[in-house]
């Protein structure tokens, strides 16, 4: 027999778990870098740039175009790492709920 009430309860539980995970991603961070770590970008799991860290060495170069390129690369690296973190968290959440999301994330 099809139990619509039970399905709705499961859907609500899944939505609540996703909302909780999304909220936790605002506090978790990853670090992207470029130039051998001379430029670092701290990115949240919500894909917000939290901080840019520049080494003294890169500032001494006094090369605006290079610095812009390195910041861009560090941010892109951080965003990629944040995306992987979210996929891992979603996979764990789906697995804990018995949902087969393999290959969908």
Q: SSE layout and pairings?
A:
Layout: H1 4-25, E1 29-34, E2 39-44, E3 49-54, H2 56-61, H3 64-96
Antiparallel strand pairs: 1-2, 2-3
Helix pairs in contact: 1-3
Account of the protein in words:
This protein has 105 residues and is of the alpha+beta class. The protein has a domain at 25-96: 2-Layer Sandwich (Ybab, Chain: A), CATH 3.30.1310.10. It has three helices and three strands. It has helices at 4-25, 56-61, 64-96; strands at residues 29-34, 39-44, 49-54. A three-stranded antiparallel sheet has the order 1-2-3. It is rod-shaped. The mean pLDDT is 89.
CATH architecture grouping of the domain at 25-96: 2-Layer Sandwich
Query: What's the level 1 CATH class of the domain at 25-96?
Result: Alpha Beta
- Please describe the biggest sheet, giving its number of strands, its sense, and whether it closes into a barrel: 3 strands, antiparallel
Distance between the termini: 31 Å
Strand content: 15-25%
Q: Estimate the helix proportion, in percent.
A: 55-70%
Shape annotation: rod-shaped
Low-confidence stretches: none
The number of distinct β-strands equals: 3
Primary descriptors:
17% strand, 3 helices, 105 residues, 3 strands, alpha+beta
């Amino acid at each position: 027999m099809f139990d619509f009430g039970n399905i709705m309860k499961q859907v609500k539980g899944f939505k609540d778990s996703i909302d909780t995970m999304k909220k936790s991603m605002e506090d978790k961070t990853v670090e992207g870098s470029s130039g051998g770590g001379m430029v670092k970008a701290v990115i949240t799991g919500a894909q917000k740039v939290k901080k840019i860290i520049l080494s003294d060495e890169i500032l001494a170069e006094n090369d605006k175009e290079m610095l812009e390129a390195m910041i861009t690369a560090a941010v892109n690296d951080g965003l990629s790492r944040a995306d992987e973190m979210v996929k891992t968290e979603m996979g764990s959440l789906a697995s804990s709920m018995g949902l087969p999301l393999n290959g969908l994330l």
